[in-house]
Structure formats: structure tokens, C-alpha cells
Design goal:
Blueprint: H1 10-16, H2 24-34, H3 42-51, H4 56-65, E1 77-82, H5 85-89, H6 92-103, E2 116-121, E3 133-135, E4 138-140, H7 145-157
Parallel strand pairs: 1-2
Antiparallel strand pairs: 1-3, 3-4
Helix pairs in contact: 3-4, 6-7
The structure holds FE2/S2 (inorganic) cluster (FES).
Length: about 160
């Protein structure tokens, strides 16, 4: 059976980290990024565990323990709207509604073009610009509808 393009990248990702089991989290992060849909398919976990001589259950355990890993496909960009207390108080509900309007999806959903997933998150340290959102590793704050549309356009053009 032919390997999927992602499955065939498992070897090079393992190689990049010298096959070190201690670097499992980095390997999983790379795989998730390479998936293009922000998730780690089960067949990749099985191949990774085989190659690292680890029980698949141990790799699954790591992948499901950390909230940054997704087992189901998501959008290429995950828009995380902080709903911890400081952001909540300064209007994260309003921000999530503006993103819902701009993307025409509800919180927890992915756009039909698989580009964006909208989800809540807990504090990621952007409290000084609350209500804050995080896309990839970039934090955005002081958001208005105009700014949100600009941000979405920028990611669409990437
Ligand atoms: S409380 Fe929202 S980023 Fe910290």
C-alpha cells in the first residue's frame, strides 16, 4: 500500500531529531505542522512508535495529553480566543462573535476551505492586550472588526 505524503515524512522527522525519544514532542509538533490540517493522523503515530521502538499507546498518550495536539483535522490556522478571566472581562465574547461573523462559522468550527478553525483557549500570556487571540504563535489584541478582517485577509494571502 502506498504511504500518504505525511506518513512518508515520518522518517525524515525522526532523523531531524536523531531518533531521540526525548524529542518526541518536537517530532509530534513537526508532524502536526506538516499535516497542513493541524492534526496527527493515527497511522503516523503508529509508524513513529514503530520506528522509535515505543509502544503506540505511549505515543498516543503523549499526543492526547497535551492540548496543543489534535487528533482530528482542523484548519490550517487555529484562531484561539482567550476566555480566561481578564480577557473575558474585557470582552472576549464580543471578539469571538466578530470572528464568527467574519468567517461565517461558529466557535469550534472550521471554515469549508479548511483554512481557519475558531476555538476558545485559556490564557496564553497576551493579557496586556486583552481581549486577546492567538494564531500560530502570534498574539493579537485591541481588536476591532476592521482589524479582524485585515488579519483574516493576511492569513488568506499567506
Ligand atoms: S487572560 Fe487572556 S491572554 Fe491572558
Amino acid at each position: 500500500m502506498n504511504e500518504t505524503p505525511l506518513l512518508s515524512q515520518v522518517d525524515s522527522i525522526i532523523e531531524k531529531y536523531d531518533g531521540s525519544k526525548e524529542r518526541l514532542i518536537q517530532m509530534l509538533l513537526d508532524l502536526q505542522k506538516a499535516s497542513g490540517q493541524n492534526h496527527i493522523p493515527g497511522d503516523c503515530i503508529i509508524k513513529l512508535s514503530d520506528k522509535l521502538n515505543m509502544p503506540a499507546s505511549a505515543v498516543f498518550e503523549v499526543a492526547t495529553f497535551y492540548s496543543m495536539f489534535n487528533m482530528e483535522p482542523k484548519g490550517k490556522y487555529i484562531i484561539e480566543v482567550c476566555k480566561s478571566a481578564p480577557c473575558h472581562v474585557s470582552g472576549s465574547k464580543n471578539v469571538s462573535e466578530m470572528f464568527e461573523d467574519a468567517l461565517k462559522i461558529k466557535m469550534g468550527e472550521t471554515t469549508p476551505d479548511n483554512l481557519f478553525t475558531l476555538q476558545y483557549s485559556s490564557c496564553f500570556g497576551g493579557c496586556d492586550v486583552s481581549p486577546a487571540v492567538k494564531i500560530d504563535d502570534t498574539v493579537y489584541g485591541n481588536l476591532t472588526m476592521e482589524k479582524i478582517n485585515e488579519i483574516i485577509d493576511m492569513y488568506r494571502r499567506k
